[in-house]
Amino acid sequence: MTAEPEIRTPQLESDLEGRGWHRLPKLLTPSDCADLSAMFDADERFRSTVTMQRHGFGRGEYRYFAYPLPAVLERLRQCLYESLAPLANRWAARLGASASFPADLPAFTSLCHASGQVRPTPLLLRYRAGDYNCLHQDLYGYLHFPFQVAVLLSEPDVDFDGGEFVLTEQRPRMQSRAHVVPLRMGDAVVFAVNEAPRAGTRGTYRVKMRHGVSEIRRGERFTLGIIFHDAR
Ligand SMILES: O=C(O)CCC(=O)C(=O)O
Ligand SMILES: [Fe+2]
C-alpha cells in the first residue's frame, strides 16, 4: 500500500456529488497488485467462489475473502472507511435516512454483525477474454455503507484489452447517463453503491447508481473490490 492513501476530501466530495465516482490514483503499488492477484488461487483465503455466468451476472469468476482479511486489505478497508464516514453521514442526512455511520470500521462491522450481516464482502475478481460484469449493485442486507472502492490490479493495454470500468446514473424522469472510469494498475475508484443525492433547482433528488465492466477482449484482468458492509 502506498503509505496512507491520499484522499483529498473536497475533490472527493465534489466528484461523488457531481457524478457519483472519484478516482484515487496509485492506491496500491505494483507489487501489492501482483501479490493480491496471485492470491486468487489460494483457496484458504476465501469463504466462497462465484462463477458469474451461472447466475446471469456476466462471465468470469470472483471470490469473497474470509476473515481475517490479508493485512494490506484490512488496513486499506479501515483507512478508506474512516475517510468516507463523514461524507456517508452527510449523504444519509440529505437523503432523509436515519442511518448514522460510526467513525471507524470496527464499530460499523459490529453494527452489521448485530443485524445478522456477518460474512465478509471484500472480493477478488478475475476476468479473461470474453468475460464481463453486468451492471449491478453490491447490496448485501439492510445495512449498507453508501460508498465502495474497486482497485484495478492489472495493467490495461499490457495485461489486457477492453475491460473498462463503467458506471450508470439513473436519474428520475431523465435518461440514464454512463461513465467510463479511466484506471491504470493500482488506481482505485470510489463510487456510490446505491443512491446518491444530487442538488437540483427544486432541492435534492436521488440518483441510482450501477457499476459493471465491459467485455475483456484479450488477456487477464484482476480487481480488488472493497465493500464496507458485511453480508447476510
Ligand atoms: O472488476 C471491476 O472493476 C468491478 C468489480 C466490482 O463489481 C466490485 O468491485 O464490486
Ligand atoms: Fe460490484
Automatic annotation (TrEMBL):
Span of domain Fe2OG dioxygenase: 118-231
Superkingdom of origin organism: Bacteria
Gene3D superfamilies to which the protein is assigned, alphabetical: q2cbj1_9rhob like domain
Keywords: Iron, Metal-binding, Oxidoreductase
Pfam families: Oxygenase-NA
Gene Ontology terms, MF aspect: metal ion binding; oxidoreductase activity
PROSITE patterns found in the cross-reference section: FE2OG_OXY (PS51471)
Family, similarity comment: Belongs to the iron/ascorbate-dependent oxidoreductase family.
Protein name in the entry: Fe2OG dioxygenase domain-containing protein
